[in-house]
Amino acid sequence: xxxxxxxxxxxxxxxxxxxxxxxxxxxxxxxxxxxxxxxxxxxxxxxxxxxxxxxxxxxxxxxxxxxxxxxxxxxxxxxxxxxxxxxxxxxxxxxxxxxxxxxxxxxxxxxxxxxxxxxxxxxxxxxxxxxxxxxxxxxxxxxxxxxxxxxxxxxxxxxxxxxxxxxxxxxxxxxxxxxxxxxxxxxxxxxxxxxxxxxxxxxxxxxxxxxxxxxxxxxxxxxxxxxxxxxxxxxxxxxxxxxxxxxxxxxxxxxxxxxxxxxxxxxxxxxxxxxxxxxxxxxxxxxxxxxxxxxxxxxxxxxxxxxxxxxxxxxxxxx
Amino acid sequence: xxxxxxxxxxxxxxxxxxxxxxxxxxxxxxxxxxxxxxxxxxxxxxxxxxxxxxxxxxxxxxxxxxxxxxxxxxxxxxxxxxxxxxxxxxxxxxxxxxxxxxxxxxxxxxxxxxxxxxxxxxxxxxxxxxxxxxxxxxxxxxxxxxxxxxxxxxxxxxxxxxxxxxxxxxxxxxxxxxxxxxxxxxxxxxxxxxxxxxxxxxxxxxxxxxxxxxxxxxxxxxxxxxxxxxxxxxxxxxxxxxxxxxxxxxxxxxxxxxxxxxx
Lengths: 319, 263
What we know:
The complex is a heterodimer of chains A (319) and B (263). Chain A has 319 residues and is an alpha/beta fold. Chain A contains nine helices and 18 strands. Chain A has helices at 17-32, 46-52, 73-86, 98-110, 217-225, 234-238, 269-275, 292-295, 304-317, and strands at residues 2-6, 9-10, 13-14, 35-42, 59-64, 89-95, 114-119, 121-123, 130-135, 140-146, 151-155, 170-173, 184-191, 204-208, 229-232, 259-263, 280-285, 298-301. In chain A, the strands form four sheets. Chain A has a seven-stranded parallel β-sheet with strand order 7-11-6-1-4-5-12, with helices on both faces. Chain A has a five-stranded parallel β-sheet with strand order 15-14-16-17-18. In chain A, strand 16 (259-263), helix 7 and strand 17 (280-285) form a beta-alpha-beta unit. With 263 residues, chain B is of the alpha/beta class. In chain B, helix 2 (68-77) links the parallel strand 4 and strand 5. At the A-B interface, helix 3, helix 4, strand 7, strand 9 and strand 10 of A face helix 3, helix 4, strand 7, strand 9 and strand 10 of B.
């Protein structure tokens, strides 16, 4: 029984999330009893393949083709579907990155497979593995069965530690037949200018809410001291204090960093849904009754304008 | 141009979601319902595109008779008419996509807009599956270069630029934004930053009551309603262990360093 994990590179560099996906593949291989195959697609990806081969998979399939230079769903879907079919892969997975989320449902349709998104873990064994995944923004954990012979999934990277170095995989250069007639054209990529890490990938997130009264300076300064991303509650976004893309919550970004600091956030259901998967939660709020304290590991009933600069100074002094 | 847009009925994100003791579903008592917020963004975008390029907006919902409420909400925002696919059983993303495909083959829209995901099952699949089934191009997670505080947004400028037979779509991807060009007809899924949906006006709500809703049954559409993904069991997420209130920043820092080991 073959398991195929699709790794990802961006401009030739292996994406870190791929190693979390490899780890999920190894965990699945133990439960389902299969062999782990990896796929890497792109153009001029030798260095990324060299790095990826050292993580204990059986075979690394490399599809190095100029037509796959920039990621597009249509050609990538064609290529991976051919590979998955030639391997008779029962399980096909990837990380829940922007590419993973765009590609895998389309791939599932091409393979006639059912799919599970944002998988947190696997239950059961053999071809009857159940997939654990969040629903209602993590307020519910579901166990789902995929009834088709081929099962497609992507994984929530925060739930699987990056794979440790392991035995070297056999590397195979693969040829695929690409139709070349696609409805989409890649035009450009603009990186976000922010010097801060991306909200969903940051190790630490500092968020501000209504309690900031529109002054995010202490939130931003603490974030920079901790190399953290800045987040916000919906109340702060709706007030126009910060851009919409900083919103943490069910309809904003769902985050699960190692440390989440909520400053002046009361903890509406909407917000809690987006951050309660964080490993450690710190809440700073003047209202001791605020619901945020029910999910916080450490609560400080105090004024954020006093506490955040103190915390920032303490972090700086401790470096 | 004709734009087909989806409106899924979901639990209100402000409602507290609890699992039934037997794990067979969620407690629906006291839970409010509304249009999936991402679908609401899709409806708004469709209305802006039609305001610019003329045409009509057709809203599609799949579900029991209750989904008519959400279809009326979309029509109160300005959608012209509705198609209600009557289906009361389980519906995974694959079945939703197959039903939508059958409707699309009848309606022949120039563009299909969906929310990037529904906030109940959070699968984020239907748009991509639909694009593959139709053999169309896809542009997921449509967003905007400008912020939602910008003048362009205040002027209700569409985030998706349509030029003749193709659309330019700005997409939110890891670490930045990407622009794709996709030939029409196409499937586009909408992310949070694409627009701020309008509120329905009172005249809009009155007018919506008279707008037509056509009923379609899966059997008449030739669609088998078997699902590929079955929910076996639901459970509440693992609880967090009780936290503590610390007296001052010094204690907090000490705990974060030696106990939690996160700084």
